[in-house]
Amino acid sequence: MSSLFENTLKQINEAAEIMNLDKDIITILSHPKRILQVSLPVRMDTGEIKVFEGFRVQHNDLAGPFKGGIRYHQQVDMEEVKALAAWMTMKCAVVGIPLGGGKGGIIVNPKELSKRELEQLTRRYIDRVQALIGPNKDVPAPDVNTNAQIMAWMVDEYMKLGNLNKKGVVTGKPLECGGSEGRASATSQGGVYVLDEIVAEKGIKPEETKVVIQGFGNAGSHMARLLSEKGYKICGVSDSRGGIYCEEGIDSINMIACKRDKGSVSECAEAGSKCERCTNEELIEKKCDILVLAALENQVHADNADNIKADIIIELANGPVTPEADRILNNKGVMIIPDILANAGGVTVSYFELVQNEMQYYWTEEKVQRRLKPIMVKAWQRVYEIQKKHKCTLRQAAFISAMTRLKTIMETRGFE
Ligand code: GLU
Known about the structure:
It is built from 14 helices and 12 strands. The protein is of the alpha/beta class. The structure holds glutamic acid (GLU). Glutamic acid binds near residues 143, 172 and 318.
């Protein structure tokens, strides 16, 4: 199987061919600008020292400071982080915000660490990467298994290292530590703004639309809430421990509360209700109209793509559909709203957070939404126009949209 970064290169090359992009630009975008690998010793609660491995990949900063999350996961590896960093470059360019692409990761299962160990690990990571990050250089954020609390430790550690009043070093912070209104739900909200446009054009009625959501972390749980508020019927949800499918629909608010109490949505089947437990793999093959992929990469692949029943897939996760599955689904006529567009609301509100930190002036939730919506709608319209013009997929169109912007910068500025 090809690596995640090779998949990203395939996507870049496919789109580049359609738009007839200059070879030199493809060459530049195929290589991250800088890569850092760090060792992170932590004194565990047992008294022993354990060394974790971490990465930060800075893919491209032509449009602005490197930007992208840090994930804590046992499956993190350098190829994955390189892919995720390149997607961030594309994502920021799709929505046209002045930021580049970066990504970080630590090989760890954070669920096995105590809170103290997690804090030590986080602070150690910042010690190791501090020379490379900063509001004008590289701005990390939450990703898989990282959250506002972890961002608070990061900003605190960075300031302790002498970087006073540099709150914009990370985004996705708690409100009381310089976070932005609307950031927690931004990834899902951005996806909803795009979906609203599609639904309006296709004449889809939310009340008659069944939704399955794979992944119930930050993005998945906010998506469940936002879509139920709009009247969609949420029929299935899952997390890393398993899923649940209820033909008659799920109450999202109860589900969010139940997951908080019991640790997994798979524990939340109500007695007597028409709900069945299922694995993550089974869940995505269930009957639904819209499938939201909000977990990890490579979830839909050559072996299960044919079994997908949804008409629309929204990629809130990064890279959840492999290139082979992409082809199969496109041949079946499934509409895929690609990650670099569908989940770009998160980094867009991160950009707002950075701006607010620099101004030291904070916006209301309403103001955040008033600014997020037109960015998402314009990004969608631009991608949709390109798709119609080139008769290509939405993913190819999103890459063309991004690379057109990057090409203009490179042609104007050069890339040395
Ligand atoms: N981790 C998120 C993403 O993949 C957010 C990145 C950010 O806000 O910088 O888009």
